[in-house]
From TrEMBL:
One of its GO terms (molecular function) is protein-arginine omega-N symmetric methyltransferase activity. The keyword rRNA-binding does not apply. The keyword DNA-binding does not apply. GO terms for biological process: methylation; mitochondrial respiratory chain complex I assembly. PANTHER family: PROTEIN ARGININE METHYLTRANSFERASE NDUFAF7, MITOCHONDRIAL. This is Protein arginine methyltransferase NDUFAF7. Arginine methyltransferase involved in the assembly or stability of mitochondrial NADH:ubiquinone oxidoreductase complex (complex I).
Length: 165
């Protein structure tokens, strides 16, 4: 993960563009998270090779350290929770627009349920983290902080603080 992250930083510096990384993970507080899944249940990852999905949580502290240690001049944004990111990207404004176009209460319930899954701590809201890597701008080096949507509080938005959702 370190080598891939540092290569990504070099590519961003060389060719421009940005990277937005969203995945389930932690910021260094967990140990080994390697596990297997078979038929939607956690199982021993070494049993039944070829029939078990293997996964682990991303350690965002290592990813962020790899960006900071990269010799490429790039800017790291985050990590923030998925809830923080989506809310500060205007999720509730978008939800309001979609709800106004619903033709039934069932559609409204489905939208609320989907939104709840994305932002509540019990679901994906705090389990998933978001990081962005962008080119470092000239203004960054002279003290003007680069503001990236989703990583800074959206004015008038509830839960606008990184750890308040």
């Amino acid at each position: 993960m370190i080598c891939i992250t540092q290569l990504l930083c070099k590519l961003i510096k060389k060719t421009g563009g940005s990277a937005l990384l969203i995945d389930y993970g932690h910021e260094g507080e967990k140990g080994d998270t390697f596990r297997g899944f078979h038929k939607h249940s956690v199982c021993d990852p070494l049993i039944n090779p070829g029939h078990t999905d293997l996964t682990c949580d991303v350690d965002f502290s290592i990813l962020c350290q790899a960006v900071k240690n990269s010799d490429a001049k790039v800017k790291l944004h985050g990590p923030v929770t998925q809830a923080y990111f989506l809310i500060n990207m205007g999720l509730f404004t978008r939800l309001k627009v979609l709800l106004s176009k619903c033709e039934s209460e069932q559609q409204k319930d489905e939208l609320f349920s989907a939104c709840e899954i994305l932002v509540t701590n019990e679901q994906m809201g705090s389990r998933f983290k978001v990081v962005a890597i962008t080119p470092e701008l000239e203004s960054d080096s002279v003290g003007c902080e680069q503001q990236l949507p989703g990583f800074t509080p959206l004015s008038g938005t509830p839960y606008a603080q990184p750890n308040s959702v």
